[in-house]
Task: inverse folding
């Protein structure tokens, strides 16, 4: 049972990392249709603290730093 629980956390984390990479790539391509609330939610899922008034650029930059720091970018 514990292994199943741990696998669920790993899968969620992998999904979040993939979503984060896609978000950063979209921002680099200049896609303007960034859903800020979903970006903040993703950042928080990764354990990144973002302010309630953080701009989209600030959130993407924080996610990019996180990915770079963890070797996932």
Result:
């Amino acid at each position: 049972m514990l292994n199943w629980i741990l696998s669920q956390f790993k899968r969620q984390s992998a999904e979040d990392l993939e979503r984060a990479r896609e978000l950063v790539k979209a921002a680099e391509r200049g896609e303007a249709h960034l859903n800020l609330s979903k970006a903040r939610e993703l950042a928080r899922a990764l354990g990144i603290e973002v302010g309630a008034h953080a701009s989209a650029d600030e959130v993407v930059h924080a996610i990019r730093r996180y990915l770079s720091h963890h070797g996932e970018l």
Q: What stands out?
A: The first helix runs from residue 2 to 29.
